[in-house]
Amino acid sequence: xxxxxxxxxxxxxxxxxxxxxxxxxxxxxxxxxxxxxxxxxxxxxxxxxxxxxxxxxxxxxxxxxxxxxxxxxxxxxxxxxxxxxxxxxxxxxxxxxxxxxxx
Length: 103
Fold this sequence. Notes:
The protein is an alpha+beta fold and about 100 residues long. The chain has a single domain, classed as Alpha-Beta Plaits (2-Layer Sandwich). The chain contains three helices and four strands. InterPro entries: DUF4286.
């Protein structure tokens, strides 16, 4: 069963354009990893904090096994690039979504 790995990002408005450019490249790198089958990204229309831009990335993975493999083998490296490049200028929160049967 597919799972969605969602990453919510809050970015200092002063670097939002540069961060967005980097994020587009980062998403392409994520999609090249085993088990990733798609991605959607959004700009949050109403960020919670003034002076910030906010983005939401939703990655679709084939199943929980693929997500577990990502966490085990790739997550530290993939997160590290952005953390080094934009240190202290953004924050991220993550969650995993599993589909429910149609109502």
